[in-house]
From TrEMBL:
Keywords: ATP-binding, Nucleotide-binding, Transport. One of its GO terms (molecular function) is ATP binding. The keyword Nucleotide-binding applies. This is ATP-binding cassette domain-containing protein. Residues 2-220 form the ABC transporter domain. It comes from the Bacteria. It holds the Pfam family ABC_tran. PROSITE patterns: ABC_TRANSPORTER_1, ABC_TRANSPORTER_2. Gene3D superfamilies: P-loop containing nucleotide triphosphate hydrolases (3.40.50.300). The lineage of its organism: Bacteria, Pseudomonadati, Bacteroidota, Cytophagia, Cytophagales.
Length: 230
């Protein structure tokens, strides 16, 4: 289990995260939803150790550093120039001290041209390669920032199936998405981040009210305007 307790992060005088508490359990998909600028990426960066300057506690059971057993899919994966997809996968395994494997079986899933330069891939292919690199590492936890964004319909459907299978095999997954349906279809629980605060935590049997709650909390005034217009 990974626990975030009373996380507070500021950039200068701008407090971006206010006393955030969140738990990521093994065998669970935890969705994180929030408007642009709500603080999702900052939360992920603190969780993964990419931001150091925060207060609060982030701890994994067993006393391991979160990063030891956790993979991150960033919003926009970056690849060094002149590195093929295959070399990137090999680099990721070597960086974790894992033995090299034959990627052929794994690549039947995502069908990437592994011998082309990764920085010449399309946006969707780049996301698939970053995902494939996480899959081959067989990590205990995954943090996925907008994994569905940029993927075609086929890959979206496949990714949902992959995430559910990983969850059933015990992986704990933290997932952000602006596509509410993608979150409610895959997640076991969803936290709503508003202005850097966890506004509410929803269990799966409460997802039915989530869309209307969000509409009301985000757009109450506009909904009033809509009623007067239409
Ligand atoms: N390096 C930084 N320096 C200063 N302010 C930052 C920095 N990174 C993020 N912020 C601010 O922190 C707030 C939260 O940003 P963050 O990227 O975490 O939001 P987000 O929920 O991931 O948004 P989006 O859905 O648009 O990706 C924003 O107001 C942003 O301007």
């Amino acid at each position: 289990m990974i626990e975030i307790l009373n996380l507070r992060k500021a950039y200068g005088r701008h407090v971006v995260l206010h006393d955030v508490n969140l738990t990521l359990r093994p065998g669970t998909i935890h969705g994180l939803v929030g408007a642009n600028g709500a603080g999702k990426t900052t939360l992920i960066n603190c969780l993964y150790g990419l931001e150091k300057d925060f207060t609060g506690t982030i701890r994994a059971t067993g006393g391991h550093a979160v990063r030891e057993h956790t993979g991150l899919l960033p919003y926009e994966p970056y690849f060094y120039p002149r590195l093929t997809g295959r070399e990137y996968l090999e680099f990721c395994l070597q960086a974790r001290g894992r033995p090299l494997i034959d990627f052929a079986g794994w690549n039947q899933l995502l069908e990437l041209p592994l011998d082309q330069y990764a920085d010449e891939y399309s946006a969707g292919m780049r996301k698939k390669l970053a995902l494939l690199a996480l899959l081959v590492q067989q990590l205990d936890y995954l943090i996925l920032d907008e994994p569905f964004n940029g993927l075609d319909l086929e890959a979206n459907l496949l990714l949902k199936a992959i995430l559910k299978r990983l969850r059933d095999r015990g992986t704990g997954i933290l997932l952000t998405s602006h596509i509410l349906g993608a979150l409610t279809e895959t997640s076991d629980e969803i936290s709503v981040l508003v202005g850097g605060r966890i506004q509410r935590h929803y269990a799966a049997d409460e997802f039915g009210t989530l869309e209307n709650d969000l509409l009301d909390s985000l757009h109450r005034e506009k909904l009033g305007l809509l009623t007067s217009l239409i």
